Design the sequence.
């Protein structure tokens, strides 16, 4: 079993920050309830409040795929459509 | 040349948060001036203000070592001694 880490960075439009934060709540709750999730944390830049980063740890590759296929993740992606200043940068390690 | 990424998480004592943020300023400035640094960003958890994460990108392994040996990094480590609730978790990818 090899831990997988995802770092996902988002640049949110200034006027959409409250709506974005709101949309993350169900995503965070749903993800932390996944059996394969180790940690799932959202952070905001201390310099630019429009910059956010998700730091995510999963037990293995399969747990990461379960997350990507989950209802709460898919509905989050739909909900935030139009809230971002640019495409999210998602890195997995 | 293979980009190196560091993710460093810190849990700061509540009463030390302002001092910690203050100490990061010289570190961030110094690091961004390093030739091998690509990006260096500090984020704060949207849920727990005592939780911080540095997301750092370097051009290669050597650039990462230059950073670790730098005066601004070493003096930061000294300055924040006693400010953390637990040891920092530093991962490199």
Sequence:
């Amino acid at each position: 079993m090899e831990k997988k880490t995802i770092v996902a960075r988002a640049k949110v439009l200034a006027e959409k920050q409250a709506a974005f934060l709101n949309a993350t709540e169900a995503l965070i709750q749903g993800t932390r309830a996944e059996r394969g999730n180790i940690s799932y944390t959202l952070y905001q830049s201390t310099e630019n409040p429009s910059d956010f980063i998700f730091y995510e740890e999963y037990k293995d590759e399969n747990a990461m795929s379960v997350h990507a296929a989950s209802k709460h993740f898919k509905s989050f992606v739909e909900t935030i459509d139009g809230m971002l200043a640019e495409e999210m940068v998602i890195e997995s390690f």
